[in-house]
Amino acid sequence: MTKHTSTASSLLEQMNTTLQQSKAEEDRQFVTALGRGLALLAAFENDDQLSHQQLVQMSDLPKATVTRLIYTLSTLGFLRTTAQGQYQLGSSAVRLSAAAWSRHDIVAYAEPLLRQFALNNEVSVNLAKEIEGEMRYLACSRSPARLSVNLQVGSAVPVADTAIGRAFYAASLSTQQAFIDANLQEHLAEDDYQQAQTMLIKAEKYYKAHGYTLSDGEFSPDILAVAVGVLDVTTGRYEYSLNASVPRANWDADEYAGMIVPKLQALAERIGRGG
Fold it and tell me: What is the pLDDT of residues 209-219, one digit of tens each?
């Protein structure tokens, strides 16, 4: 029997329906334990963090089963425990999602635009999103000029030390900033966290005054980068940030920003509206 699910329902609801149908049909090819594990991951479709009790309620599975699934998924890196004792998607899930995003929707739309931008302006340009206290690269296009650091899709860089991270933080709503702060506090030593907060507060003020952020040799001594936030018009939120970098020895920071920032802002606007 062909299984059908409604596209209007949540992913978890769809997967639970499939699990029930497979059980009713005694489908010997269907691996129920795997299905349950994937359904538990689907519970995070609309929530960044969930408690053990919430996962039990949402999955409609026995408490002991959820405990074993959480342990297995955490061991494999698909879930992680937060400082508050809740659960969120882990690094393995993040790596898979980054690969998926690189081929999907706004990221897929952005890729040819980034290639053309890099070619026209002789810069390296990247699209990224904050995940687990780092900026994860979702789309990249390299400059013809040789840079000391060449990052690829799935690479991660610090939030506070990079223009792309500072722009994402500066453009985000206060609620999103609080979530980023919590991620940083969890992943950084106390002194490093305090330093990161100081840099991000300074970057936010600069962004409000100038419309972009700057990293002049702070992430890498050889790289000069500017960055702007990308507003996703479908959500009304700054979901990504975009940077453009060049060899630092070739440019004065103010001259470079004056040349590239208006073009980068126009590119960000085009990507954000998807056309």
Answer: 999 999 998 88
Q: Tokens 């004065």 belong to which residue? A: 252
Helix axes 174-187, 163-171, angle to 10 degrees: 140
- C-alpha–C-alpha distance, residues 45 and 104, integer Å: 16
- pLDDT higher than 90, residue 116: yes
Asked if residues 135 and 162 have their Cβ atoms less than 8 Å apart, the reply is yes
- Separation between Cα atoms, residue 136 and residue 239, nearest integer Å: 12
Q: Are 143 and 123 in contact (CB under 8 A)?
A: yes
Of 42 and 4, more confident: 42
Instruction: Give the Cα separation of 48 and 89 in Å (integer).
Output: 8
Percent of the chain at pLDDT exceeding 70: 91
Phi, psi for residue 219 in degrees, rounded to 5? -80, -45
Reported as a single tens digit per residue, the pLDDT across 229-268 is: 999 887 788 889 999 999 988 899 999 999 999 999 999 9
For 194, phi and psi rounded to 5 degrees? -65, -40
